[in-house]
Amino acid sequence: MGHARPLATSRSATGIPTGRLAVWWILASEVVIFGGLLGVYIMHRIGHPEWAEAASHTQTWVGAINTFVLLTSSFTAVLAHQAAEKGDGKKAAKLLGMTILGALTFLVIKSLEWTNEISHGYTITANTFWSFYYTAAGLHALHVIAGAIIMGVVAFDAYRGRELHRVELIGIYWHFVDVVWIFLFPLLYIAK
Amino acid sequence: MSENHENNEPQGDGHDDGHHVNYFRIYVVLLVLFLISVAGPEVGELTGLRWITLITAFGIALVKANLVINNFMHLRWEKKLMKWVLATSVILMVLMVAGIAPDVLNHEGRNWQNLAAQAAVERGLGEDDHGEETMLAEGGAEAAPAGFSAASSFGTVCATCHGAGGQGDGPAGAALTPAPANFTDPAFWEGRDRDRVLTVIRDGAASVGGSALMAPWGALYTEEQLEQVTDYVMAFRPN
Q1: ipTM surpasses cut 0.95
Q2: CB A51 within 8 A of CB A129
């Protein structure tokens, strides 16, 4: 890009661009948030064999479809980054749009899944397993929503050739959301 | 390829031209791993080997996460500093979890018992026989455990501190300050009524300004059972 960049995007004692440094710092704190939550879940799950009954009611195929959706959205996010690096803002914006579509698909499937479960009496207060289930997946879903909104803003700019470096930044965040789900999926749907 | 990258500092960030990842290939590998992890439980069930399920579930999750972090998030090409920051975060998180683990994984130790957790396991496993109808019919985990009686509940839960005779002389109570209440002492009952006893059993003594050592037991019992345990305690009251 020909125009001058704001100082803050390049000023960095670490040699890492400031924006990317910030995203990594956020993720470092997210590691503790999600890691702590999942770690405590795993400990309780091992200590409570009776949760197997409650856990057997989660729908594996629904979780599987959502895993596929998120993996695919991560793929389009990294392609968007690639396009941005080549300076193709329009292509990056379109690929980000596809990623947002993935986020929305994920959320629609999640709401249908939860509606079904809640209508069967499996609410957040039913027992501690369901409490963990809704807390962990809910916190993750909030991250999906936040990511989709930010991607919308970044795509809007990228389409006009502005702030292309942000495509990488939102991508890194989005892959992290994918990684969290990669661990949530086996915990809540596979080895439950 | 790099002329449009936002970061043009002379030393570079090792991030511009260094990586020629075939993203599509990584994506395909991720999908194959994903399919294996979904098939894992089926194989585990067919062969009766639960460790197959665990390995295909969590082993593959680690491999997938590794692929995404290194190839999609490009951590592989990131400055060492950032890897250390993230590693510190992971280590602190693992330390925290490991520090709590002994108390959560075990429900009893040399000098302690987690009665609430033990009771939850017992109640939960007992429910298996009735299946989900019981649980749902009762609208959650409130299903009454078979064989509840106020006397046996008092014996296993309350008597540990308050003593089988309610005299505040239970084995675990000796070391407590303040000492557990003696229900047979008329002085104890001054200014205390049934409602207060029920509240303390359900919400803990701290809820009425008393000692936090008297824990809340409301999660263990239904309202009806709490009433019965309260009646049992009230029976100790001297006339």
Answers
A1: no
A2: yes
